[in-house]
Amino acid sequence: MEKCTFFNDVDDDRIYFAEDLARHLAAYFTNGIFNNSCQVLGENNDMSISINIGSANINGYRYDNDTIKILNIENADGILSRVDNIVIRLDLTNRMITSQVIKGSFSENPVAPPLVRTATVFDLRIAKISIPAGTTTITQDLITDTRFITSDCGNVVGAVQQINTDDIFAQYQSKFNEWFLKMKDQLDTDAAGNLQSQIDDIEEEIKNFNGGVTGDTLPIGSIVDYDGDTVPANWEKVEDENIYSTAEQEIGEWFGKKLYRKTLVTERITAAKLIDVPIANIDMFWIDASGTYMVVEVGGVKQTTPMPMYKDSALWTSLRPNITSKNIELSVGTGAYCHGVCYITILYTKTTDEVVQK
User: Are residues 223 and 141 in the same domain?
Assistant: First the structure.
């Protein structure tokens, strides 16, 4: 049956319901939180958690929380542990969306309760709370942030859901496998050996590639106009100003296509953030870890740390490139030593460059 929306009503011939508007919006917005909001924190010195202000979208229905909300966690057991869910729940029967604690079951090896997703109830899990036996205070290390796990919650990062290319990729993979089987039968010993030699050379180049950085050398001064005294004394500035740059650099080839490098610079980061990759015609990109760092200032002292980094549950950083959305999902812990200015160096190819056959 054909159906269309929305038109002005004439004598009650165009009557619409809330679900009609929700169905309309669901086609344009993915489920999840908006702008990295609704973070769960354990800073109350008791058995409760706080949910920061923010908004979410669930199947076209919008949730807004304009004040910090406190949710109480039930007392721990004396012997067994459990894991609770913190969810934003859409309840169509009661016509509301609320944040809730979903209590888990006590066990020696507890797991979080399954998410409820039915025709009338839909959960977005924004955190999991680990409650070991004897717990009397919910601290930050007991909270697992699940906001950026797509299957749990996700982040509304675009107005239109991205195209799913899984089927297209499967077709390409099938065609490649078919071609490879034919070629394998046609290659004689000399040709196969030559091909393997080329593969070995490429693998060796990849293994040895370090982006121009060796030992304790960090070219911070050549990334942007940053005061020289911000670099710790134990780092040595590379004299070649072209090693890293915010401008695009052509640095070689990647399997027959031109390979480019560029350093992205952020403002001071204190929470999770999506960083756009502003490069036209980008094909594939990945992070050059040897040229990716964070400059942190704590107590008047500036320090440089590599990214990604993990020290403990509060001091960590992570980077996840999203080729489809052309952005980088940057997440950081709650510790002050992982809040700073980020220099993220990416390597990439372009769709406009042809593969050079050799």
Answer: no
Residue type, 355: V
Lowest mean pLDDT among 135-144, 151-160, 231-240: 231-240
Which residue(s) pair with 57 in the sheet? 32, 62
How, if at all, do strands 54-58 and 32-34 pair?
antiparallel
The reported pTM is 0.45
Residue type, 86: I
- Asked whether residue 11 is assigned to any structural domain, the reply reads no
285/164 Cα distance (integer angstroms): 18
Rounded mean pLDDT, 186-196? 65
State the pLDDT at residue 354: 83
Best CA proximity match to 126, nearest among 159, 93, 103, 151: 151
Distance (Å, whole) CA 90 – CA 52? 18
What Cα–Cα distance (Å) separates residue 316 from each residue in 38, 143, 194, 322?
20, 14, 44, 20
SS3 195: helix
> Do 169 and 197 belong together in one domain?
yes
Using CA atoms, how far apart are residues 287 and 212, in angstroms rounded to an integer? 15
Number of domains within the chain: 3
* 228 plus 115 within the same structural domain: no
The string of DSSP codes covering 220-275 is GGGTSS--GGGS-TT-B--S-TTSS-SS-EEEEEETTEEEEEEEEEEEEE-S-EEE
Domain final residue, candidates 117, 133, 156 = 156
- And the tokens for 314? 């509060």
